[in-house]
Write a structure and sequence with these properties.
Order of helices and strands: HHEEEHEHHHEHEEEHEEEEHEEHEHEH
CATH class of the largest domain: Alpha Beta
Strand content: 15-25%
Number of strands: 16
CATH superfamily of the largest domain: Zn peptidases
Bound molecules: glyoxylic acid, manganese (II) ion
Helix content: 25-40%
CATH topology of the largest domain: Aminopeptidase
């Protein structure tokens, strides 16, 4: 067991050494040199245990232990290695290192398995580089077509496909995942909230993953002189945006007990102290585990933008950046993971994930489950993100026991 903890720790340290912002959180954008360094480390570790490596559609990485029936539906486990800018060391990485360690334990223990066991690394989970979260899993499951993928660019205008080839990545399986390819998908992840800490529980089992809508709202007015333009004659998009942003907060509070809405990015042009802004753009991220509540909150935000802009004579555009439906995970898998957790003398806590996860996409074609470990003070997407090694190793033990049984 000590070995397991040590190996997980070493894997995490090796991966997090690949970081574009040392001393200021983890920044590892998809297909960047840091990302490629971390991915290559995991690929090399997988090769050491004889896993067959395939680069799948959209740059997702799969390391396969074939099993006695190599063409049967696989048991998948894994997560992502890309990060938000200045994020933490645990988001995504925990799911990759626990899957890697479980695969090592299967090989070293010479565990017989009938079904293939896959360790997967999904590309662009965060959407931090290409603006669309869950992109690798969405493309792999056919929710994003190759044409749509080719049109996606980062902030520098580099396309997803060009970024992949600049990083030297060649896809060797461009097929989509279909029902029948995957028997089950299991992802270990940090909770990224404070529910487990509040319950004093070391393991969370996810019953549902919240749906997400991400919008970009642009408001156009007239840039003009800050000193000579009377207040009544202004066409100021930032004043309108300020009102809409305050209203978004209230819409989320009024929508449902679990609705959350965030304006995380705002840009203003020309951004000069003595110039009335001509254009403002801001992002909106809205989440709820109930589709109807989510849709009505988004509709209220759109309506509020329309009303506010028309009252002030401003024009606007709303683009949808990404969407993910709320997803219910497999009851069978949750019950099964609960038994495995209890067999280790730990009482799991069933919960809803407010964060998005690639497993939500896989849940459309396989039985899917997620195992959460507590996040200290509930913090995530920031340098302070922290989860205890003992909890991560416990999640790895549960994952391993589950995969052995599912793939038997
Ligand atoms: C990913 O971490 C998300 O929930 O946006
Ligand atoms: Mn994550
Ligand atoms: Mn994240």
């Amino acid at each position: 067991m000590k070995d397991r903890n040590n190996r997980i720790l070493l894997d995490m340290e090796a991966i997090n050494a690949y970081n574009a912002t040392p001393g200021n959180g983890i920044t590892r954008p998809t297909f960047s040199p840091e990302y490629q360094g971390a991915a290559t480390y995991v690929i090399d570790e997988l090769k050491k245990i004889g896993a067959e490596i395939t680069i799948c559609r959209a740059g997702n990485i799969r390391g396969r232990l074939p099993g006695a029936e190599p063409d049967a539906a696989a048991v998948m486990m894994g997560s992502h290695l890309d990060s938000v800018a200045h994020g933490g060391q645990f988001d995504g990485v925990v799911g990759v290192v626990t899957a890697l360690e479980a695969a090592r334990a299967i090989v070293e223990g010479q565990v017989n398995h009938r079904l293939p066991v896959d360790v997967v690394i999904f590309a662009e989970e965060e959407g931090s580089r290409f603006g669309r979260g869950l992109l690798g899993s969405s493309a792999w499951t056919g929710r994003v077509t190759p044409g749509q993928l080719a049109a996606i660019q980062d902030a520098q205008g580099i396309s997803f496909t060009a970024a992949m080839s600049n990083a030297g990545i060649e896809v060797d399986d461009s097929g989509e995942l279909k029902p029948g390819d995957v028997r089950a998908m299991l992802e270990v992840h940090i909770e990224q909230g404070a529910v487990l800490e509040k319950h004093g529980s070391r393991i969370g089992l996810v019953e549902a993953i919240a749906g997400i809508r991400q919008l970009n709202i642009s408001i156009h007015g007239t840039a003009d002189h800050a000193g000579t333009t009377p207040m009544a004659d202004r066409s100021d998009p930032l004043q309108a945006a300020a009102g809409i942003i305050l209203a978004i907060d209230q819409i989320a509070k009024d929508s449902g007990p679990h609705t959350v809405a965030t304006v995380g990015r705002i840009t203003c042009e020309p951004a000069q102290v003595n110039v009335i802004p001509g254009r403002v753009r801001f992002s909106v991220d809205v989440r709820d585990s109930k589709l109807k509540v989510l849709e009505s909150a988004v509709a209220a935000i759109i309506q509020c933008t329309k009303t506010s802009c028309s009252e002030k004579g401003l024009s606007f555009e709303i683009d949808q950046l990404s969407e993910a439906e709320p997803v219910t995970l497999s009851k069978n898998i949750i019950d099964f993971l609960e038994k495995k957790t209890r067999s280790m003398d730990v009482e799991p806590h069933r919960m809803i994930s407010g964060a998005g996860h690639d497993t939500a996409l896989l849940a459309g074609l396989a039985e899917a489950g997620m195992i959460f470990v507590p996040s200290r003070d509930g913090l995530s997407h920031c340098p302070q993100e922290y989860s205890r090694l003992e909890d991560i190793a416990l999640a790895c033990d549960i994952l391993l026991a589950a995969v052995i049984e599912l793939a038997a």
